[in-house]
Amino acid sequence: MAKARSTFRCSACGHTVAKWVGRCPDCGAWGTVDEVASMPTRATGGGGVAPTSPARPLTEIDAHSSAAIATGIGELDRVLGRGVVPGSVILLAGEPGVGKSTLLLESVKHWARGGRTALYLTGEESAGQVRMRAERTDAVHENVFLAAETDLATILGHVDAVNPSLVIVDSVQTVVATGTDGVTGGVTQIRAVTTALVSMAKNRGVAVILVGHVTKDGAVAGPRSLEHLVDVVLSFEGDRHSTLRMVRGIKNRFGAADEVGCFEQRDDGMHEVPDPSGIFRHERDVDVSGSTAMVTMDGKRALVGEIQALTNKSTMAMPRRAVSGVDSARVAMLIAVLQSRLGVKLDDQEVYVSTVGGMRVTEPATDLAIALAIGSAVKNQPIPHNTVAIGEVGLAGEVRRVSAVARRVAEAKRLGFAHAIIPAGTDEKLPSGIRITRVDNLAQAVAAKSRDVVDAPF
Q: Region Lon-protease-like: start and end of each range (predicted)?
């Protein structure tokens, strides 16, 4: 056997160095490098160790033993990939007060009503507080077991006693592994707790859902290895000023990692929103200047929204530019393109651009809708309410191709739109029953904005 020696490992990212340093050379964190004892290595040419269970042909493995079990919440099952897989570990992270515990109580309710046993372990609230929320959301059921516990060994004892098929730990940052160094919620403690829970889930075939905290930047709190240990990572997002909540997949070993589930938080719990486009779009039957419909992709889901723009004459040397729900730098670029390529005078105009319903837009496929809305507002020329604009606008004024145009047009058609303006380079097979106008540049898009093609831009 080779001689054992000490090494130094970063508790934040796991990077190993030969000697102690104050700052990790890999992740840049300060004060996270600790000494660890290396296990002695076996000499070259030594014999192997007999496995506890022999390897079997892949054809003999039972695939039905890992079949997903539906939670009863369609939007959550969409993100998970048909449901919860026995033996899997799911990490649900989100900001405080966004509704993580409420959503999990909804899941527990449907799980128990399906004749299965669930164990809810809370380390942040008392059992009485959870019972009050369960009564408010109608989640009280005899198959739901509740315990307020933060000690890891005791938690594993509860699992042995109840023998549930679903375990929820709220939250992983509050659980303490006795015998492990580090403070509660620290990197070392979180890694030890998660490792033990993952081992328990795999050995017993129990599905485990961990609630995690997030940092001020929106990232999952704790070591990066936490996301590698679990099977599924979900991000629960929401605005404090809106009831809309979104569960977004970040990592998923059992399905697509770019799905999005929509919910609405009410007094009696979380409610599914299978058609969120109605929230992001203002229903109206009249044409209004400065308003254009758009279609944005959130994961694999197409969402129809509305962009509104308002311009106002200004006497200031630098007119104000204010945006809400869109990228301010992107809007500034589109204003410059409108002035340079189409001659739309905006240097003496205040420009305000906003989305409807609190929608947040980040992809460039909404450039065309924003540009048309601004031009419509400054010239007071309404764009038909049944027209939707899709496309990215370049600095030369060209309209560039975007992804998933067919899916966007299909969603617009489903909601009753009759006309879609799309990039000319689109080669996807588009649905029938909606009028399509293909444009190469912004000037052609302006000319095609009305029901009948006009001969003058704005």
A: 350-458
Exposure string for 169-194, b = 16+ CB within 10 A, e = fewer: bbbbbbbbbeeeebeebbbbbbbbbb
- CA-CA-CA-CA dihedral for 353, 355, 357, 363, to nearest 10: -150
Give the residue numbers of the binding site. Answer: 94-101
Which residues does the annotation place in the binding site for ATP?
Answer: 94-101
Q: Looking at this protein, which amino acid is placed at residue 168? A: I
Beta bridge partners of 245: 238, 263
**Per the structure block, which two tokens stand in for 198?**
């993952």
Closest Cα to residue 406, out of 295, 298, 299? 295
- Pair type for strands 321-324 and 349-355: parallel
Per-residue pLDDT reduced to its tens digit, 307-349: 999 999 998 889 999 999 999 999 999 999 999 999 999 999 9
Structure token pair of residue 85: 């897989």
Give me the helix-helix angle, 127-136 and 100-113, nearest 10°. 70
Dist. CA 169–CA 120, nearest whole Å? 6
